[in-house]
Amino acid sequence: MNKKILFSPVSGADPISEHNLYDGPLLHIARHYKPDMIYLYMSKEILEKHEQDDRYRYCLKKLGEKLNHNFEVKIIERKELEQVQLFDTFYRDFGDELKKIQSTTDETDEILLNISSGTPAMKSALFVLATMMDISCQCIQVDTPEGKMNQHKHSKVYDVEEYWEVNIDNELTPEDEKYNRTHGEKLISLKRIKYEQIIKKYIEGYDYHAALMLAEGMNPNDTVQYIEKLKLADARQQLKFKEVDGLLKKHDPLAYSPVRDNEEKRRIYEYMLTLQARVSRAEYADFLRSLSPIFVELFKGILLKQTSSNIDEVFYYEDKMLKWNLEKVQNFDEVKSILEESKDKTWVKTWQLIKLIEKFVKNIEIVDCAKKLRNIESTVRNMAAHNMIDVSDNWIKRKTRYTSSEILDLMKEAFKYTSYNIKKEDWKSYDKMNKDIIREI
Q: φ, ψ for residue 380 (rounded to 5)?
């Protein structure tokens, strides 16, 4: 709707000061910000003045005519409100009124708060609400023409028509020093600050889904700088590559998907990064349960890289799962003999690949690395997958002689023996992505 909405308490200096004949804060804000809607909050004393001569709406109407702008004015009456020095009263009441106003707006509207009119309790309550509430608003202060505290002078009779005619602000031009005495401050709410701190913690812990869920519950105006990058990080960690590629059109691919030259290579690389994240979050059971798929890919990669035969013919993918091509297997006696030991001759398994690596790969270090990984899998993977146990890093160390980080290091060593050609800096890709997102928050 692109509307400006002003919420304003009303003070004795409004609408035009009897002391100096300049705009009071209410009128001066209206003059320079030209709000479309103005909510005037009136205590018992102010309401009596309003009912006496309609001074506030009269001056706003005259100002609107002068500016060729229509001010729609709504009065919030508090006929019983006499204790205008009580902060708690206004903190609750202003909060309720601002929520009502906010419910009528959309993200294109702007809410202005006059924190120069009213009692100290009113001003303080408005300022605190502006920082506490999840509301996009601008607090506006107005300097006195003298640059010091107002002198209060209130006559029993307030000739509103005369005061309008002699109002000095009506004659000022932009060249005059006192032409615009407003100071607008767009505040970041404490709630937003708190949420963004939590989002940063989620990002640093590689929990992009939690960060995205929290961000999506915030004011869209507050997250516009980084919400798309969070969606990209979340899709990346969930291995949704089509979604990632769609979002990458607007962002740096080196920060969000550095390995894209080969689909199979990309899939195993990104899967490995999710395992790193699980270890960082101490999700050790999930880490162990996720080892078998990547071990299959690593062992196959080692086998293909370290042999000169066309053994790759015996493999094919179905729904991203590696299967044996039984027709081609007949051409390889070593593979054929291993499959004869298997009850299930459909899916490729790590123990089968290890036997092939032992037969075909001559480098002892490579064979030893692969066998260590296979032993880790056979020792703890099923225990973690099929038992309700507390899996800690110490537990993994006791069972395998390796910590989770050391297992990751072994896996990275195994990558070196494949043709995937993952660079050392690529393993820090999530950290690079995190810095890019956090920089926008």
A: -120, -20
